Amino acid sequence: MNCPYCNNNIADGYANCPACGAQLVQNQQYSFGGEENVNLFTPLKKYAQFAGRSRRKEYWLFVLLNAIVGVICYFLGNVGNIISVIWSLAALIPGIAVTVRRLHDTGRSGWNYFWAFIPFVGGIIILIFMLLDSQYGPNQYGYNPKGIGNDQY
């Protein structure tokens, strides 16, 4: 059996993937399955998981969560500034991880994240990568989280 997130080959009997820690369901064909259950907090649950793929929905819901927290902090004044700093530090690693997994979903290496450090142009490049659709079927980073095209491989 292969892990649905990191595509690591796993012997039968494991409840979690030894490589990425993903919970496994025995005798389930992940490649034929439907889409993952994704919500605002999914990237926080996958705190520092850089392996695997994340679909656009997961990435943009996390962006929405950060925007909601930012608006709430804005209206709280000085207390909001402190909360904003704490949230920014807490969401830093999940934000990088979901971006890297999103890059994996488009068939790109996580090292493409460093485009973001180029002034002006880098942010536009990353934005374009985040807007692109998933690569059809499985790729070197794992199965398509939408479930589209996985059954043909």
What is this structure's SSE topology?
Blueprint: H1 42-45, H2 56-75, H3 78-105, H4 121-131
Keywords:
single chain; 153 residues; mainly alpha; 4 helices; 41% helix; 0% strand; globular
Any overview of this molecule?
The chain is mainly alpha-helical and 153 residues long. The chain has four helices and no strands. The chain has helices spanning 42-45, 56-75, 78-105, 121-131. It starts with 41 loop residues before the first helix and ends in a 22-residue tail after the last helix. Residues 27-33 have low confidence and may be disordered.
Structural class, by secondary structure, is mainly alpha
Output mean pLDDT: 85
> Which consecutive residue ranges, at least 5 long each, have pLDDT under 50?
27-33
The whole-angstrom Rg is 17 Å
Provide a quick synopsis of the model:
This protein has 153 residues and is an all-alpha fold.
